[in-house]
Automatic annotation (TrEMBL):
Record-listed ADP-alpha-D-glucose binding positions: R15
Name recorded for this polypeptide: Glycogen synthase
Pfam families, sorted: Glyco_trans_1_4 (PF13692), Glyco_transf_5 (PF08323)
Record organism: Deinococcus carri
Entry keyword annotation includes Glycosyltransferase: yes
Residue span, Starch synthase catalytic domain: 2-218
InterPro entries: GS/SS, Starch_synth_cat_dom
Catalysed reaction, written as an equation: [(1->4)-alpha-D-glucosyl](n) + ADP-alpha-D-glucose = [(1->4)-alpha-D-glucosyl](n+1) + ADP + H(+)
Similarity comment: family membership: Belongs to the glycosyltransferase 1 family. Bacterial/plant glycogen synthase subfamily.
CDD domains to which the protein is assigned, alphabetical: GT5_Glycogen_synthase_DULL1-like (cd03791)
Keyword terms, alphabetized: Glycogen biosynthesis, Glycosyltransferase, Transferase
Gene3D superfamilies: Glycogen Phosphorylase B
Keyword Transcription among UniProt keywords: no
This enzyme's EC code(s): 2.4.1.21
Length: 443
């Protein structure tokens, strides 16, 4: 089967979060299972190196476009170069216009290269317009929602000319959404099959609480048999405490203890158990709840937080840096993230919603027990005999779950049993990759 993925980022070339991680692992796994896989993504000016150029030409309505390729892990990575992406960084305020240009350029590039897959699989709103144009060209299409909150909306009167879509598409049944162009909706409307990244999130987004205004359309897709949830996997080679070069390698609780001691020494923390956080600093992730709960948490835990995002949340956490049991590092730091997963005893994820989440899987693989809110992929991945769950998105509920975890930590036998069960869970991509290949078969 010839599969073509389209996404705005793919690790290790470009990455801002979990989307890039998925596009690093899923295509490689599908290729190992026998599929012929290509991944298409923009070439950002910030990327290092130069892909081998395979095409250059004019695309109507877009302008000069070039394409280059890199082959790794049995996958062909095809990068599309556009003037709109020749600036620092990945994402910008005018991204709807930029990804409309990308959305119009992809099919002409593929056609020029005589590359037509059996299935084109778009990921998140940045690929929504590609899915629409592929459907209109008669291609089979799938589309995955990684986070419904981000939809790629822009005033329709201004954005209409950016898309290259026919007039009939600009209706409530098409890409129009409350007077805006909505590129997430474009993917949902035009895809033959739609998935989300966990079964629980697939159910949640059909409700007003989580549907972000699109719940009516998503209910319809469910009734038509076109919406399902396939749980993300984890790159278990990249995230393996036995071989991780950023930590003191270990395979059991005894080896993990050395990493805890190293993390305490790194930040000058005392002997209390460690509660780790590696997260975007955003309301979605419940970081305000964590900050509100800190006065109680520090009575029982050392708290190590790594993350960047909302300036107000960053400032609030910076204000806690004086406390001898709190360590906060702002921004992205891959090596430190690995050390937090390895050195922490428990890992907090108080998300208001969580389409899937990778951090809880990584934490358990590293013997770190998650304290999570009961939502989305956190429900589907954290067993009750490993981690700790709480229902309400409140600081009090988070603090209560952390109290339960701290009490359990005092029972050495029980804690070690939970730790060892977590380290043996299988989150590999083989199962999800096969589910996607089966889904393509429906098309």
């Amino acid at each position: 089967m010839r599969v073509l993925h389209v996404a705005s980022e793919v690790f290790p070339f470009s990455r801002s979060g979990g989307l890039g991680d998925v596009l690093a692992a899923l295509p490689v796994t599908q290729a190992r299972l026998g599929a012929e896989v290509t991944v298409v993504s923009p070439w950002y000016a910030a990327l290092s190196g130069t892909p081998e150029e395979v095409w250059r030409g004019e695309v109507p309505g877009v302008g000069l476009v070039w394409a280059g390729e890199v082959r790794e892990g049995g996958v062909r990575f095809l990068f599309v170069g556009l003037p709109e992406f020749e600036r620092p960084g990945l994402y910008h305020p005018d991204d709807v216009e930029r990804f409309c240009a990308f959305g119009r350029a992809v099919l002409p590039v593929l056609q020029a290269l005589d590359l037509r897959p059996d299935v084109l699989h778009g990921h998140d709103w940045q690929a929504g317009l590609v899915v629409a144009h592929a459907h209109l060209a008669g291609w089979r299409t799938a589309f995955t929602i990684h986070n419904l909150q981000y939809q790629g909306r822009w005033n329709l009167a201004e954005a209409r000319g950016w898309t290259g879509l026919p007039d009939w598409a600009f209706s409530p049944e098409g890409v129009e959404f409350h007077g805006d162009l909505n590129l997430m909706k474009a993917g949902l409307v035009f895809a033959g099959q739609v998935t989300t990244v966990s079964p629980t999130y697939a159910r949640e987004i059909t409700t007003p609480r989580y549907g972000e205004g699109l719940e009516g359309l998503l209910v319809r897709l469910t009734l038509e048999g076109r919406l399902s949830g396939i749980l993300n996997g984890l790159d278990q080679d990249r995230w393996d405490p036995r071989t991780d070069p950023d930590v003191l390698p270990y395979a059991d609780a005894a080896g993990k203890a050395a990493n805890g001691a190293a993390l305490r020494a790194e930040f000058g923390l005392d002997g209390a158990p460690l509660l780790g956080v590696v997260s975007r600093l955003a309301d979605q992730k419940g970081m305000d709840l964590l900050i509100e709960a800190l006065p109680e948490l520090v009575d029982h835990w050392n708290v190590v937080v790594l993350g960047g995002g909302d300036p107000l949340l960053t400032a609030a956490l910076t204000g806690w840096a004086y406390h001898p049991r709190v360590a906060f590092v702002s921004g992205l730091n891959e090596g430190l993230a690995h050390r937090v997963y390895a050195g922490a005893d428990a890992f907090a994820m108080p998300s208001r919603f969580e389409p899937c989440g990778l951090s809880q899987m990584i934490a358990m693989r590293y013997g770190t027990l998650p304290v999570v809110r009961e939502t989305g992929g956190l429900v589907d991945t954290v067993p009750h005999d490993v981690g700790f769950q709480f229902a309400e998105a409140t600081a009090g509920a988070l603090a209560a779950a952390c109290r339960e975890a701290r009490t359990t930590f005092g029972d050495t036998v029980e804690w070690r049993a939970r730790l060892e069960r977590g380290m043996t869970l299988d989150f590999s991509w083989d199962g999800p990759a096969r589910q996607y290949l089966d889904l393509y078969g429906k098309l």
